[in-house]
Design brief:
It is built from eight helices and five strands; from the N terminus they run βαβαααβαβααβα. The protein is α/β, with parallel strands linked by helices. It has a five-stranded parallel β-sheet with strand order 2-3-1-4-5, sandwiched between helices. It is globular.
Length: 188
């Protein structure tokens, strides 16, 4: 199994690149953001609870997110591996992912870390807010998301430093994709 974690700050381009990687390598795309937005759109109790937390720029609990991921892994069939997008976001989540993948006999092969300058990230978020109207792309929530990212998510990169590969994320979509594919081909 080809198991990859896609890592980077909010608006680094993870979702855009994930779609391309999933198609090229026949991976199940496990995007916690997509899963949670689906719950919110459906108006489920889980979705309502998540919306309040997300709209304030905070992260959901590890237990909540891990349960979503475990459920999705169990339901995935006919794939060559998993692309974890937006997960793990904390060291506790990374440790749980390691445990789950160790039990399956297919560890994480690499962590692709998309690096984009902060000014460019903020510009992208503001542009996305205009286009998509996402409630979590307002100035206060953006600042909170960066604080959460630096406090809780950056340590995940340190956890995976042995398999972490930086990707220059401010190039064109094709340049970023080509760089990611070159890394994947080396670790397959």
């Amino acid at each position: 199994m080809l198991n990859i974690a896609l890592f980077g700050p909010p608006c680094a381009g993870k979702g855009t690149q994930a779609k391309r990687l999933v198609e090229k390598y026949n991976l199940a795309h496990l995007s916690t953001g997509d899963m949670i937005r689906k719950e919110i759109a459906e108006g489920s109790e889980l979705g309502k609870m998540a919306a309040d937390i997300i709209n304030s720029g905070q992260l959901l609990s590890d237990e909540f997110v891990i349960e979503l991921i475990q459920d999705s892994i169990k339901k995935s069939r006919g794939v060559e591996g998993f692309l974890f997008d937006g997960f793990p976001r904390t060291v506790a989540q990374a440790e749980k992912l390691d445990e789950m993948l160790r039990e399956s006999g297919s560890p994480l092969r690499c962590l692709l870390s998309i690096d984009v300058p902060v000014d460019e990230l903020k510009r992208r978020m503001q542009e996305r807010a205009k286009i998509e109207g996402r409630a979590d792309d307002n100035e206060e929530a953006i600042n909170n998301r960066f604080k959460e990212y630096h406090a809780k998510t950056l340590p995940v990169a340190q956890h995976y430093r042995a398999i972490s590969h930086p990707v220059k994320g401010d190039g064109t979509m094709d340049e970023v994709f080509a760089e990611m594919c070159a890394i994947i081909e080396k670790v397959k």
